[in-house]
Amino acid sequence: MGSILVVGSVAFDSVKTPFGKVDEILGGSATYFSVASSYFAPVRVVAVVGKDFGDKHVEVFRKHSIDIEGLERIEGRTFRWKGEYGYDLNEARTLDTQLNVFETFKPLIPESYRSSEYVFLGNIDPELQLSVLNQIKRPRIVACDTMNFWIKGKPEAVKKTIQHVDILVINDAETRMLADEPNLVRAASKIMAMGPKTLIVKRGEYGVLMFNGKSIFGAPAFPLEEVFDPTGAGDSFAGGFMGALAHAGDVNERIFRRCIIFGSVMASFNVEQFSLNRLTNLTRGEIDERFRQFKALTHFEEF
Ligand code: AMP
Predict the structure, then answer these.
(1) Which of these, 47, 132, 164, 283, could form a disulfide with 10 (CB 3.0-4.6 Å)?
(2) Distance, CA 64 to ligand 1 centroid (Å)?
(3) How far apart are the CA of 152 and the centre of ligand 1, in A?
């Protein structure tokens, strides 16, 4: 089984949804990703936090045996993100982004991380994502996320980074924005011409579409009666996907499709409660059971 290296944000999030509100709770792309993937494979984190990051936050990573040698704690305040969702939980409105310790962060990859076989460049400054790739041996798979904040703010850096990426995992609005093309299928072709061989488009409650060369695979999101907080759904998806990929130890279309479902399983658990509350309290049995429910949900026969 291969091990996974993730670089991304570790954050304090303030989130408001129609069902409740939380202030300064643990979040961030690397946090959601690493907890989700830890159910499948060994994970190592590269990120930075400030002096306000306490032991109870570190404990979340420890509980899941996540390697945090690359989690730097420096003078200053931890990254903060404030967002809001309306009844349409598919779209977060960013109210505030405070980069804080990320403003001066230069990721230094520990020696023991450099031969990780699976690398996930979580949503952070694309220049930092690239500097991570420059410090490591050629991994088996590099996957990458980004967001409108960076596509708008640093479009050239985003394009440069994704030239070196095998799988890009972004949402539908980001796909359209990055390709400057409203049609998703055409946008996917344009993006695959920029570097990534595979594009996974997250579509919130409508599921995901995977474009892999000429093939397209679609999976629904798991139909849930209660969705409390979609924050981190994308990163939990990516964590489940990469975790299952590292666990499989091989790469082909069949495996990719199975990993898409494991990603969707982890995202579905994540949205059931605020912050990481559900994701940190799962059993492997619950994950496998939901995977089987997914199979039943999407199974059909020709005649
Ligand atoms: P998602 O999985 O797409 O819902 O991502 C949610 C996480 O992204 C939140 O926990 C935020 O802390 C984090 N986030 C939001 N904006 C940024 C940004 N500009 N850079 C890095 N992380 C961010």
Answers:
(1) 47
(2) 21
(3) 15
Cα separation of 92 and 230, whole Å?
8
Instruction: Report which ligand 1 atom has the smallest distance to the Cα of 230.
Output: 4
- Asked whether the beta carbons of 86 and 111 are under 8 A apart, the reply is no
Task: Please give the model's pTM, rounded to 2 decimal places.
Answer: 0.96
Q: DSSP assignment of 46-92, as one string?
A: EEEE-TT--HHHHHHHHHTT-EEEEEEE-SSPPEEEEEE--SSTT-P
Q: Give per-residue pLDDT as tens, 59-89.
A: 999 999 999 999 999 999 999 999 999 988 8
Residue at 87: amino acid letter:
Y
CA–centroid distance, residue 125 to ligand 1 (Å):
11
- Residues contacting 166, CB < 8 A, separation 6+: 141, 142, 143, 196, 197, 198
Residue nearest to atom 18 of ligand 1 (CA): 124
User: Which residues have any ligand 1 atom within 6 Å of their CB?
Assistant: 9, 11, 13, 27-29, 32, 81, 97, 123-124, 147, 149, 231-235
Q: Give the residue whose CA is nearest to atom 12 of ligand 1.
A: 28
For the chain, the maximum distance between any two Cα atoms, rounded to a whole number of angstroms, is: 64
Task: Label residue 90 by pLDDT band (50, 70, 90).
Answer: confident
